[in-house]
Design goal:
Elements: H1 4-17, E1 25-31, H2 35-47, E2 51-57, H3 69-74, H4 77-80, H5 85-93, E3 96-101, H6 114-123, H7 125-136, E4 141-146, H8 150-155, H9 160-171, H10 179-197, E5 202-207, E6 210-215, E7 222-224, E8 234-237, E9 245-249, E10 254-256, E11 259-261, E12 265-269, E13 272-277, H11 282-289, E14 298-304, H12 316-319, E15 325-331, E16 346-352, E17 358-361, E18 364-368, E19 371-372
Parallel strand pairs: 1-2, 1-3, 3-4
Antiparallel strand pairs: 5-6, 5-17, 6-9, 7-8, 8-14, 9-12, 10-11, 12-13, 14-15, 15-16, 17-18, 18-19
């Protein structure tokens, strides 16, 4: 018998996040551990009149790139730099995409040289760009989620049973028979914050871990309430590309393809990262920031609003939504926000704002110690 939480999750993803319609071609990306959710997704895509197409990996950390341990270990330079034509075709022509993070080993690439990861990312830049571009035009409806595995539970220092409960509660499918109602409520509440900040010019973030100014002039703030991520809970935009000035010390570790970089401090001048240090993972940080011309510029500025995610788990899908935090992503921006920074990477980094911290918008207090001030 299918876990009712999994069935509710599948209905939420197909009916709300992607909104599968008759005739839609939907690619479902997962690792084999997510079989129960994949089966339920196929069922609900078919019931909606869509056409499910599976891309399942045995040990994939990133189904989009084929960046699994076997490929990354044995591929030569030509193979590393070879694009993924099937993914290009799917992302250029399909109507829906559901990606399920479901790793059975989160450390598969922990010892992989950063340069090999950088080369593979560079070869797949077109896939990420297509996702963002077609997503902006409403031609590709996509969502990323997670299926709880033992590996993720260990990474979060939790039992599998406890982690399953944490995941399903964060998605609001643990008990709610109709989680769509909950996420519609989140959208309504977050819109209040967007209504205040939209149309402003300068944002200033101040606190013990941040002294940063950036411009959001003519940029659009988006309401993240379950359309592209599940779970969700943030408002975000793409800052003016050359506007960031100051520094941020990110209070949470940043994880990149299973490798942990902690104690990151970035310094910005005219939008570009000009200083980058880390207590752990300095070489990886430098290598990834040097991926391409856009990887040292910001593609995203966001405020996390999900206080149901009450701990750091080492998984960005959850951690970037932590209530009382803000995060920024170096690399590719979302065109629908007005940001057009292009890069093969989009790497989120998170900073806590719950103590002695504030956000000013055009000089007025907008956010203080983890709460909106309006």
């Amino acid at each position: 018998m299918t876990d009712p939480r999994i069935d509710r999750m599948a209905r939420l993803l197909t009916g709300y996040s992607v909104g599968v319609r008759p005739g839609d071609r939907v690619i479902i990306e997962a690792e084999v551990a997510a079989e129960p959710l994949v089966r339920s997704l196929v069922e609900h895509v078919l019931k909606a009149g869509g056409h499910p197409h599976l891309l399942v990996s045995f040990e994939g950390l990133d189904m989009m790139s084929g960046m699994d341990a076997t490929f990354m270990t044995y591929a030569n330079q030509e193979q590393l730099e070879q694009p993924a034509p099937f993914m290009d075709l799917a992302y250029e022509t399909f109507e829906g995409r559901i990606r399920i993070h479901s790793a059975s080993n989160t450390k598969l690439l922990a010892a992989m040289p950063a340069e090999r990861i950088r080369k593979r990312r560079g070869a797949l830049k077109s896939v990420l760009a297509t996702q963002f571009d077609r997503g902006q035009r409403g031609e590709l409806r996509w969502v990323t989620t997670l299926f709880p595995t033992q590996a993720y539970a260990q990474q979060a220092d939790m039992s599998l049973e406890g982690y399953e409960k944490f995941v399903y509660q964060a998605n609001h499918v643990q008990e709610e028979d109709d989680p769509v109602v909950y996420w519609q409520g989140v959208k309504k509440e977050q819109q209040k914050a967007i209504d205040v900040i939209q149309g402003s010019n300068q944002v200033e973030v101040r606190g013990p871990n941040c002294e940063l100014k950036l411009s959001v002039k003519d940029r659009v703030f988006l309401n993240a309430s379950g359309d592209h991520n599940m779970p969700d809970g943030e408002i975000y935009t793409g800052p003016v590309e050359d506007s960031a000035d100051g520094w941020v010390r990110f209070t949470y570790p940043a994880v990149y393809q299973g490798q942990v970089v902690s104690g990151i401090r970035l310094g910005f001048k005219e939008g570009r990262v000009v200083e980058a240090t880390a207590d752990k993972g300095q070489e990886l940080l430098t290598t990834i920031l040097d991926t391409d011309a856009g990887s040292r510029y910001l593609g995203e500025f966001a405020i996390g609003t999900n206080f149901g995610i009450d701990r750091f788990t080492g998984n960005i899908l959850f951690d970037e939504k932590i209530g009382g935090s803000f995060h920024m992503a170096v690399g590719a921006g979302y065109p629908e926000t007005g940001n057009h920074n292009q890069s093969a990477i989009h790497w989120d980094m998170i900073c806590d704002l719950q103590q002695d911290s504030e956000i000013l918008v055009d000089g007025s207090l907008f956010y203080k110690d983890g709460a909106f001030q309006f």
